[in-house]
Amino acid sequence: MLNMRATAKWSYALSCLLLLGACKSKPKPQNKKEAKMQPISAPDFNADSAYLYVQKQVEFGPRVPNTEPHYKCGDYLIQKLTQFGAKITIQSFGEEAFDGTVLQLRNIIASFYPKLKKRVLLGAHWDTRPFADKDSTNKSQPIDGANDGASGVGVLLEIARQIQQTQPKVGVDIILFDGEDFGAPLNYTGKILEKFYQQSDYCLGSKYWAENKHQPNYRAYCGILLDMVGAKNAKFYQEQHSLDYAPSVVKAVWDIANQKGYSDFFKYDRKSGIMDDHIYVNEIAKIPMINIIELEADQTFGWYHHTHADNMDIIDKNTLKAAGQTVLYYIFSL
Ligand code: AHN
Ligand code: ZN
User: What is the CA(305)–ligand 2 centre distance, in A?
Assistant: First the structure.
């Protein structure tokens, strides 16, 4: 009898505790999926601002290494990122191009919230292709590179401006790679340095950075490269190397883009892998980095690629917005 009563008391006490517990704690998401479905809020990416940053770069003239527009534009980018409150590191180095020309290059690294441990790496190349080798005229003249180069940098400058004003939970490092687009022109018949039999003649700056990181033990949770993210009606397909190196980042970015209304731009179809700056970041620096890059349905680059048509006329604020707002949402989802 006594025993029974004691047990009843205990079970009563236990029920009270359980009930109290249930009432006190916030309803927890049932599973991970539900947790991820919570609405993401992020600052509003201003496409007018990004457009002006693209235009400003183009106004310097083609940012071809070893020319004055290249040097002056580099200084402008450093000045803007300093103005946005970043801790700046400049990597200056000389690097041989395919034909043996030594290019004076600068990788520009801008760190936001450097004390935060979990970090995201954002990249784009800021140099311009020295030839319009895919054009039918003036093939040996440099291109404006409004999309190929300037668009990715313009989007990153606007993201920099936004995250200075609104702090994400993760730190952000922006790397503007130099010397990406100095590969040998099509139908080149001259001598090519022997080392370029083994390695790409593109992406000189990202290779240098991956082999000489601005902090020797630098690590990032993931990286996102932006390449040709400003042309009207651009499609961003899932690029095979990105899927191989960082499948979960591709999925998260494409899901956010589609949830937030950018399904005209971010397509789930997969296209073949592209040799680009993300390759060295993945292969040498071992940071899982994806590439958001415009490709055509038939796997080729955009119609304007490496021609004089790559000028301000093809830049569309809607595309800059889709790319920039998606990346901002992704950063604020972490
Ligand atoms: C290839 O041409 C295969 N890769 C260089 C990627 C690139 C050039 N992106 C912009 N310009
Ligand atoms: Zn290019």
Answer: 7
Q: Ligand 1 — pocket residues by CB below 6 A?
A: 148, 181, 202, 227, 274-276
130 Cα: distance to centroid of ligand 2 (angstroms)? 9
CA atoms within 13 A on the CB side of 85: 15
> What pLDDT, in 10s, does the model give residues 174-199?
999 999 999 999 989 999 999 999 99
Residue nearest to atom 10 of ligand 1 (CA): 148
Query: Residue ranges per domain, the chain?
Result: 4-333
Which DSSP symbol is given to 151?
A: I
Q: What is the pTM of this model?
A: 0.89
User: What's the CATH fold of domain 4-333?
Assistant: Aminopeptidase (3.40.630)
Q: pLDDT by residue (tens digit) across 34-71?
A: 455 667 899 999 999 999 999 999 999 999 999 999 99
Q: Radius of gyration (Cα) for the chain, nearest Å?
A: 24
